[in-house]
Amino acid sequence: MSNMKESLAGIREEFDKSMEAVKDSAAAEQIRVAFLGKKGKLTQVLRGMGELTAEERPVIGKIANEVRSHMENALSDVQAKVKAEERAHKLRREVIDVTVPSSMKGAGARHPLNMAINEISEIFLGLGYSIAEGPEVELDKYNFELLRIPEGHPARDTQDTFYFNDNVLLRTQTSGMQIRIMENQKPPLKVICPGKVYRSDALDATHSPVFHQIEGLVVDKGVTMGDLVGSLRLFAKKLFGEKTEIRLRPHHFPFTEPSVEVDLTCWKCGGCGCNVCKGEGWIEVLGAGMVHPEVLKNCNIDPEIYSGFAFGIGVERTAMGRYGIDDIRLLYENDVRFLEQFK
Ligand code: PHE
């Protein structure tokens, strides 16, 4: 019996010693298996219980239980301790210092085309116009038919169109918005419609298959060509400065009568002639005219009572002049080195 007492005391001592070195939960588990497992040291000693007398058994049993619970307590204490340390270590490792300066790029800037659209829109808002937007995927009847450009009309040829099918296309001009607006609202009307338009043009320094227009439409009683000229002069001066003048050249659009193309004093040379205006002193910026009576009729507006004017401003042209951009492609490449110059 004293043999077993000694063995138990020895195991306990050995156990305590190995516990001193425990650094993580895996090591603690190894010790548990070595001492308390099925083939563990304590289990092996207790196998010898059968050889003890009836008196001896409870005495040794008591000691053995004490040793067992000593081991179990020590193990669960140490497990709790190393787990807490492991967790604290993990937290330290994953800590995020929110005060470290960010490596992210700074805020962007407005695109020059949007800047131009905003500037132009501001001018017309100041003149009492409202803003409307319409679909880029448009019906043939709005883009052409109701604007007096029927199938086979030569005006269609100048606008090489991206068709989805016979009736649906990418709009080639924002003029379809004239119809959409007049179908839904009755005069007096004073609206601008900025937006993207598409034509099957090859990309070069001055052409792009996607570009922007701002359509303008005014319909009321007694609107005249004089109102159109006055409004466009005011627009030109507000955008490019007081000295800017406009020049009207007769033109043809099927949906306006009379029709004009409108030039502005060259923004680079002020009219003397330079490389930007090709020696002309003028730069073409928009098309305009008096809304054709048949277009009014197409929208159930009586041309005997109402008249109106419409214009379509080329945004790219205007933006390039306003901000000194010499190649239209720069507007679509989205090179940050270019865009950052407009901050
Ligand atoms: N839609 C015409 C174009 O794209 C411009 C225009 C608009 C002409 C409004 C007259 C009136 O060329």
Task: Give me the secondary-structure topology.
Layout: H1 2-20, H2 25-36, H3 41-47, H4 56-93, H5 112-126, E1 130-131, E2 137-139, H6 140-143, H7 154-157, E3 168-170, H8 176-184, E4 189-198, E5 210-220, H9 225-240, E6 246-253, E7 256-265, E8 282-291, H10 293-298, E9 307-314, H11 315-323, H12 330-333, H13 336-339
Parallel strand pairs: 1-4
Antiparallel strand pairs: 2-3, 4-5, 5-9, 6-7, 7-8, 8-9
Helix pairs in contact: 1-4, 2-4, 5-11
Bound molecules: phenylalanine.
Describe this structure in words.
With 343 residues, the chain is of the alpha+beta class. The protein folds into two domains: 2-93; 112-342, Bira Bifunctional Protein, Domain 2 (BirA Bifunctional Protein, domain 2), CATH 3.30.930.10. The chain is 43% helix and 19% strand. The protein has helices at residues 2-20, 25-36, 41-47, 56-93, 112-126, 140-143, 154-157, 176-184, 225-240, 293-298, 315-323, 330-333, 336-339; strands at residues 130-131, 137-139, 168-170, 189-198, 210-220, 246-253, 256-265, 282-291, 307-314. Strands 1-4-5-9-8-7-6 form a seven-stranded mixed sheet, sandwiched between helices. A two-stranded antiparallel sheet has the order 2-3. Strand 6 and strand 7 (256-265) form a beta hairpin. The relative contact order is 0.10. Phenylalanine (PHE) binds next to strand 8 and strand 9.
